[in-house]
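Marked as duplicate of an earlier ticket. Keeping the data here for the record.
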Amino acid sequence: MKSICVFCGSSPGLDPRYLEEAIRGGQAIAQAGLTLVYGGGKVGLMGAVADAALAAGGRVVGVMPEDLVNQEIAHKGLTELHVVKSMHERKLAMADLSDGFLCLPGGPGTFEEIFEQWTWALLGIHAKPCGFVNVGGYYDLMRQTIQHMADNGFIAQTYVDMLVYADTTTQALDAFGSYVAPAPKWRTNKP
């Protein structure tokens, strides 16, 4: 694994533990020698994780639609900033640049980004790990909802179990190191 994509909030949230973990997470990614790929913002948890990785000597690549760059929320101190036309292009570029996807606390955009990568993984579009840093139990209810999907026959348990949950970014990165992707959902059993 050479790079890790982090999805997280464009605000810091109300619990100070979210910001603390974003900082620790950025440091951990840099110290592991991984490139941080993220949405390119200077605000919220996004800015904190990038600043921490940069301060720890890490390489940080942002991907942001030009409309958001024009609104002046792009981080100006990144190793690289890829400016794209749309949010769809942003997500595709982030996926292409990353070897795994990690989610810190965030809002609907954060959920949408990680759910798309999880969907792509279960369909076999990629075989990269997807995980959640469950700071202060932030993802407990979502985890229950995902299990509820399996309990009601809308997803196989193996695709629920492919998601990594950890209390810290460091623990998630360790779990990513031994990740083995399940067979894609629609794969036939033919050799």
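See parent ticket for discussion. Residues 3-137+163-176 form a domain with the Rossmann fold fold (CATH 3.40.50.450).
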